[in-house]
Amino acid sequence: MMAVKLGEKDVMAVSLYSKEGNPLWEQWSTKSVASTLRTYSRMTFDYPYHKAISVHAPMGMEYPMICFNFGRPDKEGNYSDRTKYGMIGVIIHEVGHNWFPMIVNSDERQWTWMDEGLNTFTQYVAEQDFGKWYPGALSPNDKAFPSRRGPAKNIVRYMGGDQDYIAPIMTKGLNTYQFGNNAYSKPATALNILRETVMGRDLFDYSFKEYANRWKFKHPTPEDFFRTMEDASAVDLDWFWRGWFYTTDYTDIGIKEVKRFAVTGTPNENGKRLAERYNRDPKSLVYFIEEGAEGYEDAIKTNASIDDLPTVKEYIMDNFTPKEQKEMKIAPKYFYQITFDKPGGLVMPLIVKFTYADGTTSRETYPAQVWRLNDKEVTKAIASDKEIVSIQVDPDLETADVDTTNNTWPKEVKESDFDKFKEAVKD
Ligand SMILES: [Zn+2]
């Protein structure tokens, strides 16, 4: 056992195991309990009891202050990474149940996700902490604790699977297929994405803590969780709860079209016609010429900048954030109109990576609200002083996008195994 200081109090982290559990149990059980107490107390409220006990057993099961956990080496004391990580993970999970649903006392049979989902999410945070606090527990090839549930990419297979066997998270546990994915993995992943990609850690953690404190020793329902997260953060999350918890929609966002434009004060034939139609002096206007149209190459060569073109500057400034407007001062020369489409039902922030001709990159995150007036597609105007050579949506796989073949421009052509086979046969 070891004492864990939580606020003014010492809590005993305790392990009970037979010698057959060693060397795993003597090394990692008590540290896992202690680490759980620290992370969960930070994310919610201090563990209110004097002791937390982990008992070596054939399976994982939670009770107030005591839980039973699996993970045993073979007779010679050898064990795989899977056994080690599985044991640490299950201890964190079962100790974590003291908070959800035992103290924040939701109804497990009615809303399984409110304890398994919230607990699995906090387990993920605790596992990542554990890997940092006890790097000696990690295998040489692992830079971080290899959490099974929580990372966005791990839920893709489930969410992109056969819709006949997927139920919304809000479905009563007894009535769902794929119980583990439905009640544990998907809500844990949703909350992880909400924290890392939608709200940011500060806002999320503040609101999550507020929920736990408001509802400790009480009986919250899903609305209490949803409302507290919105109320404490002042962020409208209706769209997020609706998509992730009440539907079986998945994320799929892609790049539908990219148009390139050059800007010029010299009208082409089309520009002259337009000026005539609106009875304006053609020289008083500025023109965007789409790639491929007459005058595009010339316009690119004249190196015109938006600063030389006050009319167009005023017009396009409305399309950009203050930050982007500030960058406008660098006299952009390349103009793009990018249409993103959303074949998937889920609304998600639009995370975009731009790669420039000189090899540098930049990233923009457009909030989920870009979809508010059009759920199918959204168009962004981009001005740049450097030529953009490629664009990628969700470059770090943060949104659980189920189909990444439409995430890049120009489209990445991947040779199929069949094509490779045909090539091989030809030789
Ligand atoms: Zn559980």
Automatic annotation (TrEMBL):
GO terms for molecular function: metalloaminopeptidase activity; peptide binding; zinc ion binding. It comes from the Bacteria. One of its GO terms (cellular component) is cytoplasm. Residues 76-244 form the Peptidase M1 membrane alanine aminopeptidase domain. Keywords: Aminopeptidase, Hydrolase, Protease. One of its GO terms (biological process) is peptide catabolic process. This is Zn-dependent aminopeptidase. It comes from Winogradskyella psychrotolerans RS-3.
